[in-house]
Amino acid sequence: MLEPLRALARERPAYFRTDTHWNQEGAALAARQIAAAARGLNFDRPGGFTTRFAAEETNGPGDLLRLMGLDIMPDGWRPAPDRQRLATTTAPTPAGGGGGLLD
């Protein structure tokens, strides 16, 4: 995953600036890499995943701001929050199951 993440980072950020997690671009790249590695494994997986993005942007998670105590500081004293459009990904529900992670 390191080389694909480095390649992405040369074009655009793969991580939130104010958080320890991948942003949506980085998470999508990781999902594609994991899916490619899982091809050929012997398990059933449904196709047809759909991802929808919210129309409105919201502030990103920002756990680094909380860890440094900057979440309680006035806006001008801390970095601007990362912005994101919340994404919802759904998959077809398999017959007889709820479609959850443990189904």
Structure, explained:
The chain has 103 residues and is α+β, with helices and mostly antiparallel strands. Helices cover 29% and strands 17% of the residues. The protein contains three helices and two strands, in the order ααβαβ. It has helices at residues 2-11, 24-38, 63-67; strands at 50-59, 83-90. A two-stranded antiparallel ribbon has the order 1-2.
Give the helix/strand layout.
Elements: H1 2-11, H2 24-38, E1 50-59, H3 63-67, E2 83-90
Antiparallel strand pairs: 1-2
Concise account of the structure shown:
The protein has 103 residues and is of the alpha+beta class. The chain has helices spanning 2-11, 24-38, 63-67; strands at residues 50-59, 83-90. The protein contains three helices and two strands.
